[in-house]
């Protein structure tokens, strides 16, 4: 089976890409922040401004890089040993955002972004005492930066949920199954490509009512979600699924050769196999 090359190329920042950003951000841990650049006021969210960001982060260091769904979280150190930890920096990447640490980009190329990497597109950055820089580069300004994001507004991370938590996330709703998977308040981390891949693997119709799944089907979906996550992270991104090359007009199911159906589910373009996805 032909499969896209396993590196971060032609993706949209979904969970696998943000996990790559998290790992890259670990290179910024423990380094003293000496300045903060926030030239784009639009990119700062929930009332944050450049002065407040600089006061909150300067003279601290990042202590931990965490990921909750598609949200990257960078915890900061106290200013002194007898003080509480500093704020958490929340980074959202939208469709075109990329993390850059010391000149290394977390993703080579994004599907809806430019092929170029221009420093002029750095919407937010911190400079370390050793001269290194951690920056969010976003040509279309679709991401955002905030301090102490409300993590409780997101559902459990898809990489850590068990079958029971997945059942709770799906609920008893008549809403489309794919729509529930994409609802970040119920299940954090599933993006459009990942949803299509996991549902195709699990043999489930994306437009089925979420509450219609049997206990066995929930377990099957959970198993394939976990396998999809592991494969996409290992291969190099959300664009590396087995279905991706067929998500186009004239594409056929890689499993049984049936022409794929294209529809809009929960407002998102969806490709699925009408033969084996029920």
Structure description:
- The protein has 278 residues and is of the alpha+beta class.
- The protein folds into 2 domains: 144 residues, Alpha-Beta Barrel (N-terminal domain of MutM-like DNA repair proteins), CATH 3.20.190; 118 residues, Orthogonal Bundle (Helicase, Ruva Protein, domain 3), CATH 1.10.8.50.
- It is built from 6 helices and 13 strands.
- The two termini are 24 Å apart.
- The N terminus is likely disordered.
Anisotropy-based shape: elongated
Spatial order of the strands forming the largest sheet:
2-9-10-6-7
CATH names the topology of the largest domain as N-terminal domain of MutM-like DNA repair proteins
CATH homologous superfamily descriptor of the largest domain: MutM-like, N-terminal
Helix tally equals: 6
Q: Which second-level CATH architecture of the largest domain applies?
A: Alpha-Beta Barrel
Question: Hey, roughly how much beta strand do the residues contain?
Answer: 15-25%
| SSE string, helices as H and strands as E | EHEHEEEEEEEEEHHHHEE
Q: Ends: how far apart?
A: 24 Å
Provide the gyration radius in Å: 20 Å
Largest sheet: 5 strands, antiparallel
- What is the domain tally? 2
**Uncertain stretches:** 1-11
Structural class: alpha+beta
CATH class of the largest domain: Alpha Beta
Give average pLDDT, whole number. 91
How many DSSP E strands? 13
Helix content: 10-25%
List the helices and strands and how they pair.
Blueprint: E1 9-11, H1 15-25, E2 33-37, H2 50-57, E3 62-68, E4 71-76, E5 88-92, E6 98-101, E7 104-105, E8 109-110, E9 122-128, E10 133-137, E11 144-147, H3 163-170, H4 177-182, H5 192-202, H6 215-235, E12 261-265, E13 268-272
Parallel strand pairs: 1-8
Antiparallel strand pairs: 2-9, 3-4, 4-5, 5-11, 6-7, 6-10, 9-10, 12-13
Helix pairs in contact: 5-6
């Amino acid at each position: 089976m032909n499969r896209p090359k396993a590196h971060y190329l032609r993706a949209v920042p979904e969970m696998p890409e943000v996990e790559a950003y998290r790992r890259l951000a670990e290179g910024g841990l423990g380094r003293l922040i000496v300045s903060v650049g926030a030239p784009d006021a639009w990119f700062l969210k929930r009332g944050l401004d450049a002065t407040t960001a600089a006061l909150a982060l300067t003279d601290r260091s990042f202590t931990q890089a965490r990921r909750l769904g598609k949200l990257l979280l960078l915890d900061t150190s106290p200013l002194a040993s007898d003080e509480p930890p500093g704020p958490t920096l929340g980074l959202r990447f939208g469709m075109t955002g990329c993390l850059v640490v010391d000149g290394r980009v977390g993703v080579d190329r994004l599907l809806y972004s430019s092929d170029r990497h221009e420093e002029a597109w750095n919407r937010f950055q911190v400079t370390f005492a050793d001269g290194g820089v951690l920056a969010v580069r976003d040509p279309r300004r679709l991401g955002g930066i905030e301090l102490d994001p409300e993590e409780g507004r997101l559902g459990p991370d898809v990489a850590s949920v068990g079958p029971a938590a997945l059942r709770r996330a799906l609920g008893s709703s008549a809403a489309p199954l794919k729509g529930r998977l994409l609802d970040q308040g119920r299940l954090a981390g599933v993006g459009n490509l990942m949803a299509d891949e996991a549902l195709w693997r699990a043999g489930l119709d994306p437009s089925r009512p979420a509450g219609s799944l049997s206990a066995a089907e929930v377990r099957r979906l959970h198993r394939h979600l976990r396998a999809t996550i592991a494969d996409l992270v290992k291969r190099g991104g959300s664009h590396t699924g087995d279905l991706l090359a067929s998500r186009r007009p004239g594409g056929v199911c890689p499993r049984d050769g049936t022409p794929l159906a294209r529809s809009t589910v929960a407002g998102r373009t969806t490709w699925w196999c009408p033969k084996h996805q029920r």
